Amino acid sequence: MNGIFVTGTDTDVGKTWVGTHLIRELIDRGIDVHPRKPIESGWPTGDFQHTDAWRLALAAGKTEQLDAICPNRFAAALSPVRAARMEGTSLTLRQLAAQCTENLKQDDFLYVEGAGGLYSPLTEDALNADLASALRLPVVLVANNRLGCMSQVLLCCEALQRRGLDLLAVVLNQVSDSSGDATMNNQEDLAELLPQPVFSLTHNQSSLPAPLIDLLY
User: Which contiguous run of DSSP H or E holds residue 84?
Assistant: First the structure.
């Protein structure tokens, strides 16, 4: 199936911010994107329009499909495994993989976003990386563009390589409006160490680089 799996080096690196832009850019190119955020913890009892799943659904113009986009929602803002246990339930990799592809055709474009980092536990028997493997989707890795992120990025890249997963690109996302040390250039330094393209996004950037979108489809 055509698609991508978006994961991060950690939580709160801006996966959904990057993902909504990816989805909009693909739709602008005439691609019908089917987003999936198979698990989201920290789901509110009231207004859900600030959730990651809603943002992805809105970007794709598929808010009426929210139940399919995010079928597993848990109240506690904890790891998905622990949040699920607190509600007396558990999930398996097989369940999640089936939910991600349910009612989709072979030529549909599937966007799947994990929860937390690449090696964060996702279900009782799987990490985020295991879901990417089960779906056989190429990966876009998002990192917070800050001092110290290079080690995290390189560790994740090695893990993806060991698993035989196809890394399309690394996206360095400036999460805060602070630019930090002006002499720091993680994009340039990582580009010397990785065969995959590395993109750097500035805070509140309105669009993504065209070469990044070119890689996706």
Answer: helix 80-86
6: left (phi over 0), alpha (psi -120 to 50) or beta: beta
Q: Half-sphere exposure of 33 toward its Cβ, with a 13 Å CA cutoff?
A: 30
Alpha carbons 31 and 176: distance in angstroms, whole number: 31
pTM of the model: 0.96
Check 15, 37, 62, 105 and give the catalytic one.
37
Q: Are the C-beta atoms of residues 141 and 190 closer than 8 Å to each other?
A: no
Based on the residue annotation, tell me whether 15 is a catalytic residue of this protein: no
Angle between helices 128-135 and 93-101 (to 10 degrees): 50
Question: Residues 69, 57: contact at Cβ < 8 Å?
Answer: yes
pLDDT in tens, 18-35: 999 999 999 999 999 999
Tally the C-alpha atoms within 13 A of residue 168's C-alpha that lie toward its C-beta: 20
